[in-house]
Amino acid sequence: MKQNNQTKRKNPWIWRFIAVVWIVLLLAVGSVAGILFGTSQGMFGELPDVQQLENPEINVASEIYSSDGILIDKFEKEKRIPVSFQELPPHLLQALYAREDVRYFTHSGIDGESILRAVYTMGKDGGGSTITQQLAKQLFTGVRANSKIERVKQKLKEWVVAVQLEKKYTKEEILTMYLNKFDFIYRANGIQTAAQTYFQKDVKDLTVDESALLISMLKNPVLFNPVDHPEASTHERNVVLSQMLKYGYINNAEFNEYKDKPLGLNFKMLTSSIKETYSAYFKHTMRKELEKYFEDYAKTYGVHYDLYRDGLKIYTTIDSRMQRMGEQAIKKHLVGIQQRFFATQKGRPTAPFYNITKAKADEIFQTGMRRTLRYSAMKAKGMSEEEILAEFEKPRDSVQYFTWDGLKYHKNVSWMDSIKYHRHIVQAGLMSMDPRDGTIKAWVGGIDWDFFKFDHVKQAKRQVGSTFKPFVYATAIHQMNYTPCHKVSNDRFKAGKWEPQNAGYGYGGFLSLREALAKSVNMVSARLISESGPKAVIQLAEDLGVKSEIPENLTIALGSADLTLYEMVGAYSTFANQGIYIEPELVLSVEDKNGKIIKDFEPVTREVVSEDVAYTMIDLMEGVIEIGTGRGVRSYGITAEVAGKTGTTNEGSDSWFIGLTPNLVTGVWVGNEDRAAHFPGWDSQGAKMALPIWGHFMKSVYDQGSKLGVLQSDKFEKPSGIDERWDCSSLQGFYNFGRIGDMEGNKPTRMQVIQQRERTVNEMLSTDLDTIDFGN
C-alpha cells in the first residue's frame, strides 16, 4: 500500500490521465445517451408515432373488381408485389446478411462494431448501418440530406427508429419489409417485382448468382444497375459472392462457378395488364368518394385507410362485359364522326369554333395552354407569358397526337398545334344502370384518359336540351292528372321577352302529349311549364336526384339547365322503376387486406311519383321510339320495348339520347370540350350523334342477353287498371280522378283548367327571359 502511494506520488500525471479518460468516456456515453433520448423525444424533428410504426408505409395497391369478378384496375402509386418471408429463398437471405449485416440476428437494431469500423476506415470497408436502420431510413427518414449536420441528425433518428422497430417486429418481419420496400428502379419496387423485371421469374426461383446481383443493387440501384452499367454490376455482384464465401454460405468451387457467369438478364419492365384508358374515368370519381368515406370512417372508428398503400379490395357494380361494350360502341360511332368533323373544318380560320372571332379562338387555345403541366413548370421557373407562348409555338421533332388508330407522333409541329388539333376531337360519355337496384353497369367518361382527363359522366355539366322535357311532362301529369292523350295547343307561345320556336315542326292545331313528346314540340313543353310553374318542375327534378342548380324560369322546359349524365340517367331510371328513385351506385363493397368489410352497399331510395305517373312517362317516351325522334333505334335490330328521349342544344353543342328498357337505362352524351366547337346545322342532332352509340351498345348487350340478364322479351310493368283510368274519350284526356277538380276527385271543368293556366302564365310574364331556341 505504501509502495502504491509512493508510485502515485512519483507518477501523479498517469493517474490524472486515467481519471480524465474515465471522465471523458463517461461524459461521452452520457452525452450519446442524452442525445439519443433527446432524439427520441423529437429534439431533431418529428419521429413516427406508434401507429406509424405499427403500420409502416409499404405501398400495396388496392384492387378494383367488376361485378363479374374481373380485376379491372388498381389504385397504385408504384408497381409492387409483396412477398412473405417464407417465399424468400435461403441463398437470397444469405447474400443479404453477407453483404449488409452479418450480425443481424445478434444486435437490437444498432451494431456498435460496424459503427466503429465505419468510423475507423472512413466508410471504405462499408457503412455502419444495419438492415433495420436501412428500413428505418426507407420508411421514415427519407432521402439523404446534403448538409453534414442534417445527415448526423438523420443518422440519430435512424438509430432511434431502428431500436423501436426491433421492439415492434420480429427479425423475419423486418427483413421482409425491407426487401418488399426497396426500389430497384425501372418500376421494380420490392424484391418480387425486381425478380420479374430483371429475370422474368418469381423471387422464389432465383439462383444464387441472380440473388447476389439483386442484393448488390441495395448499395446503389442506379450506379450498379445491370441494364445501364453491366460491368459495374458484375463487379459488385462478385463482391457479394466473395462475402458469401467469406462467411461460409458458399464454398470455393461455387464461388468460382458463379463469379464467371454472365449476368443472365431477361429484362422487361412490368406494365399493367389493365387498360386504364376508360376505367380511369369512373376510378377518378370513385377515388374521391372513397377518400371522403374513409375520412368519415376514421373519425368514427379511429382507423384510417389509404387506397394507395393498404391493399384494399374494391368490388364495383361495373360489369366488365358491358363496360367493354360501351367503350366499343363509342369508338365504332365516333371514328366516322371524327373524320366528318375534320372535313367540315378544313380551311376555316376559326376552326373548330363557330360564331367567334379569330382573336377569341386564339384566346381559347391559350387558355388550353395554361392548363398544361408544361406551362405550370415553365411558370414556376419564372418564364414570362411571352417566353412561354414562344416555346409553345416552336416546332418540335416529336409531338404526341391522339387518334382512334392509336397514339401518333408528328414532326415539325408545335405544342400549340397539338392543342389546336385536340380541340377538334369529338368527345362522348356513356352511363348504363339497372333501374331496379341502382347498380351502374357501364361508365365510359371519355375517349382516352391519357389525353382527356375530364369525366363526361359525373364531372361535366352540359346543357341537356330536350332530354329535360320528360320532367316537364311528368310534373304536369303529376299535378294535373293528364293522360298520354291529353291535347295541348301548338299555337305560337310568348311569355314576356321569351318567344320560343319549334325546331323542325310547324305550328297550329292541338297535339296529344304522346305525339308532342315524340316530335319534341317546343310549344307544348312551353305551355305545360306555364301551367305547372318552373318551381314545381325543379322540385320534381331534385326529387329525381338532380343536385345541380337549375335556374327558375320557363326556359328550362326546353333544356337550358346544365346537368350531368349521371344525374339524367338516375332520374330517368325512376320512370322505369315504378316511380321509385334509387341513387346510382358504383361500389358494392370494400374489404381490407384481411377480408374485413369496411364499406357495404346501402341503396338510397325514395318514392317520387306514383306507378301510374311513372308508367305514363314510359308510354310517352315509347312514342318517341315508335313515331318520333328516336325511331332510329329500330335500325339496330332492336325489337324490345324501349322508351327514350333525344336532346340537342343550341347550334348542336350537345347531343343526347337516353334510352330506357325494363332492366337497363343508358344515357349517351356527345359533343366537343368547347361549346363553340360543333357540327354545322342539323348534323349534330341527338338522333344522329348520340342515339347510334346507344344502338350499338344495346345491340351488343342483347346479343349476350341471357348472360347479362337483359333480354329483348323484357316488358315494362304496367299498373293494373291504368287503361281504365286513362279517359281518352274526353277532349282533354284527364284521368278519371283529378287534383284540380273538386274534393271528391272528379274531373276538373274546362274553365278550371283555363283559369289555372292563366294564373300561372301571368305570374311568369314579369320574369326577364332570354330568347332560347332548343332543338330535338
What would your notes on this structure say?
It is a single chain. The protein is an alpha+beta fold and about 775 residues long. Helix content is about 45%, strand content about 10%. A five-stranded mixed β-sheet has the order 2-1-3-13-14, covered by helices on one side. A hairpin with a 5-residue loop joins strand 1 (about 60-65) and strand 2 (about 70-75). Helix 4 packs parallel to helix 10. The longest helix is centred in the first third of the chain and has 29 residues, at about 10-40. It is elongated and about 125 Å long. The N and C termini lie far apart (about 120 Å). The model is unreliable at about 35-40, about 50-55, about 120-125, about 275 and about 735-775 (pLDDT under 50).
Percent helix among the residues? 40-55%
Average pLDDT, all residues: 84
Rg over alpha carbons: 36 Å
Q: Number of helix segments?
A: 29
Q: Tell me, briefly, the overall form.
A: elongated
Structural class per helix/strand content? Answer: alpha+beta
β-strand number = 18
Quaternary structure classification:
single chain
Q: What is the strand arrangement across the widest sheet?
A: 2-1-3-13-14
Low-confidence stretches: 34-41, 48-53, 118-124, 273-277, 734-776
Residue share in β-strands: 5-15%
Give the end-to-end Cα distance, rounded to a whole number of Å.
118 Å
